[in-house]
Specification:
By secondary structure, the chain is of the alpha+beta class. The chain is built from six helices and ten strands, in the order E-H-E-E-H-E-E-E-H-E-H-E-E-H-H-E.
């Protein structure tokens, strides 16, 4: 079986030191690679679609690795990995792709969703999956402010300073949606962002900045000023990781075998 093996997985990020493998630390990639090595009886190195930070969750993370032709069928591999990769990780799909497929470089769009619970009452069922903001959010103001971020821009103000050093920080954002939602009887606000790629902590810094506008601490025009400044100090705080989910990664249909 030539080509690549592609895994789609979901995980609860609260028990991991992030997605990317790190020596001596429990990470999602490290756990999955260990499970793959056990099943395939050889070392396996994977490529991930996005390097989520410690505490960030995923519903549709994607990982890929080259096939050698001795792998079990997709159903058997799926069942084996779900027996070995838990707790906190569930593999939801195993697919075959072309030999030049890369979970990272072949992606054409990534979708993240961030959940905020506003108001004086803390979340119960959504705790660990949301950011509790103890105030009322002006969603209309947040939507108007967010419009300036859609399109291709230099997002240097909206990423960690060290990650931007010597690197190109232009990204294209396709859409930002801000909608109220009720889940398990608890009210929340979902910030949905879709773009070609994201910088380190970019979604969390954008959300933290939008919340500043929603709480009335900053004007709607301030976000455009922060974007133009091209300096991390110009934007708002970094929202906590537990509200963020890597929701979906999109690939061209011709990738799949």
């Amino acid at each position: 079986m030539a080509g690549s093996i592609v895994l789609t997985l979901s995980y609860d990020g609260s028990g991991f030191a992030g997605f990317a493998r790190q020596p001596g630390l429990e990470t999602v990639q490290g756990r999955v690679e260990k499970a793959l090595s056990t099943v395939l009886r050889r070392p396996v190195e994977t490529v991930g679609a996005g390097r989520t930070d410690a505490g960030v969750h995923a519903l549709g993370q994607v990982m890929s690795f080259p096939a050698r032709g001795d792998e079990p069928d997709a159903h058997t591999l799926l069942r084996s990995l779900n027996g070995l990769a838990r707790p906190g990780i569930v593999v939801t799909e195993v697919r075959k792709a072309s030999a030049d497929f890369s979970a990272r470089h072949s992606a054409v769009a990534r979708e993240y969703r961030f959940r905020i619970v506003p108001g004086p009452i803390p979340p119960l069922f959504l705790a660990g999956r949301s950011w509790w903001v103890k105030g009322t959010l002006d969603l209309a103001a947040m939507r108007r402010a967010s419009a300036v971020l859609v399109g291709e821009h230099d997002f240097r103000s909206f990423c960690t300073t060290e990650s931007a050093e010597g690197r190109r920080t232009f990204r294209h954002i396709d859409l930002i949606e801000i909608t109220p939602e009720s889940q398990l009887g608890e009210h929340s606000v979902i910030v949905r962002m879709v773009g070609n790629a994201f910088l380190h902590s970019m979604v969390r810094i954008v959300v933290g900045s939008l919340v500043e506008v929603g709480l009335g601490r900053r004007s709607e025009e301030w976000l455009a000023e922060a974007l133009a400044a091209r300096a991390r100090s110009a934007a708002g705080p970094t929202a906590p990781p537990e509200g963020l989910v890597l929701w979906h990664v999109e690939y061209p249909e011709e990738c799949w075998l």
